[in-house]
Amino acid sequence: MQFAEVIGTVVATRKEESLSGIKLLVLKAVDVDRRPLGTYVVAADAVGAGRGELVLYATGSSSRLTDVTQDRPVDAVVMAIIDSVEVDGEFLYEK
Q1: DSSP characters for 29-68?
Q2: Which residues neighbour 59 within 8 Å (Cβ) at sequence distance 6 or greater?
Q3: Cβ of 30: how many Cβ atoms within 10 Å?
Q4: Distance, CA of 60 to CA of 87 (rounded, Å)
Q5: pTM for this one?
Q6: How far is Cα 84 from Cα 44, in angstroms, rounded to an integer?
Q7: CATH homologous superfamily for 2-94?
Q8: What is the pLDDT along the chain (95 residues), one digit of tens a residue?
C-alpha cells in the first residue's frame, strides 16, 4: 500500500466493457508527510474517494482483489480514504 492524494479524475467514454461504472482517479504519490514523490497513477476507485483526499492505493495483482475490481483489467486501486496518520505519538495528518 502507498499514500497518495487524489488530484483529479479520468473520463473515458470508450473503454473495456468491464470498466463501465468504475470511477478512475488521478493520484499523486506522497510520503507520510504529504510531500510529493513525483509519481502519478490512474487508479480505479473502490471506496468513493474525492479530489484532495489522502488515500491508500495498491498496484499490481493486489489491485484486482477488491469487490469493485475483481477480474477487471486494472493495475491500481484506491482501497482506503485516510482519516488520520500518527507516527511515534504525533499526528502527521488529520482529516
Answers
A1: EE-TT--EEEEEEEEEESS---TT-EEEEEEGGGGG-STT
A2: 2, 41, 75, 76
A3: 19
A4: 27
A5: 0.91
A6: 22
A7: EutN/Ccml (2.40.50.220)
A8: 999 999 999 999 999 999 999 999 999 999 999 999 999 999 999 999 999 999 999 999 999 999 999 999 999 999 999 999 999 999 999 99
Give the type of residue at 76: A
Distance CA 74, CA 30 (A): 21
Specify the length of the chain in residues.
Answer: 95
Check residue 83 and give left, alpha or beta (phi > 0: left; psi -120 to 50: alpha). Answer: alpha
Name residues whose C-beta falls within 8 Å of residue 2's C-beta, 6 or more positions apart in sequence: 29, 56, 57, 58, 59
Task: Parse the chain into domains and list their residue ranges.
Answer: 2-94
Distance spanning both ends of the chain, measured CA to CA: 19
CB 69 within 8 A of CB 22: yes
The grid coordinates of residue 50 equal: 474525492
